[in-house]
TrEMBL record:
Residues 212-289 form the ACT domain. This is Prephenate dehydratase. Keywords: Amino-acid biosynthesis, Aromatic amino acid biosynthesis, Lyase, Phenylalanine biosynthesis. Its EC number is 4.2.1.51. The keyword Cell inner membrane does not apply. InterPro entries: ACT-like_dom_sf, ACT_dom, Chor_mutase/pphenate_deHydtase, Preph_deHydtase, Preph_deHydtase_CS.
Amino acid sequence: MAAPGISPSGSAPSRRVVYLGPAGTFTETAVGRAPGTAGAERVPVASVDAALAAVRDGEADLAVVPIENSVEGGVTSTLDALGAGRPLSIRAEVLVPVAFVLAVRPGTTMRDILRVGSHPHALAQCRGWVAQNLPQAVTVPALSTAAAAQVLAGEGEAPYDAALCAEPAAVAAGLDVLARDVADNAGAVTRFVVVSRPAAPPAPTGSDKTTVVAALAEDRSGALLELLEQFATRGINLTRIESRPVGTALGRYTFSIDCEGHVADPRVGEALMGLHRVCPQVRYLGSYPRADGLAPVPPPGTSDDDFTAARSWLSQLLECGEVSS
Ligand SMILES: O=C(O)C(=O)C[C@]1(C(=O)O)C=C[C@@H](O)C=C1
């Protein structure tokens, strides 16, 4: 692979974005909608780990990876890969509605299906549907939804009789669609993030999110409460919080957190400083515009203006010993 920023001809610089492939995954749809990827060379890879490794190693400029689903919650492989290893920055988020079809080789009927293959997150979102409509079938994990379609369509014996994937992936693989709108919860949405090597965050927009991973002080009662208080006392709403095992021993966890606001917002900056004081480790993963455009509504006394006014009140106290009001 050529170095990032250099085209194979060595002439015009080009950006390279890697994503969980092959063509036809929901991640590919996210790449098409992600800010900063227009005109970039798109390179599909086999896993989230491979995508993030390509960015860490300088083989790609950006990776687009799934991080959260409205039905299944956090994508643990992404949370773990972002939370450890060489640091990375989240630059943007993208929301993609997720709708699955049941794809089969031509001639297969519902009764023939004993094994259903797909990405584990897709299988989890369709668990109830499969149990109800294909009670005889077991599920088989695949690298992605589109990979499941391609494997099923390939030559010879396939490891499953049906694949759950996006309809364009089924059509591209030459499969038949036996059922549409396969889901336990209609209207499911997956959230993807655009990731780069560490860089200063984009400027605040007034509708931003910040992502951090924080470790708790070991074996201390109230440590989690202390972490949460850093956000609560500053009126900052959390949009996601998940515990992930550190992996070294039972009972050791880090917390992956998304909160409303930007690190440059005084109240968010102060909350992160609070985390730095009370947590043994804090990994800042980035501040970036919200895909839904919603702006936070801070409770009374916790707006950025309130924090700025309080800071200048303290400065005056330090300077003059009193504040004329
Ligand atoms: O397999 C795909 O098509 C993917 O893009 C991965 C993925 C995921 O990791 O959650 C993305 C969206 C769907 O929720 C199911 C699978």
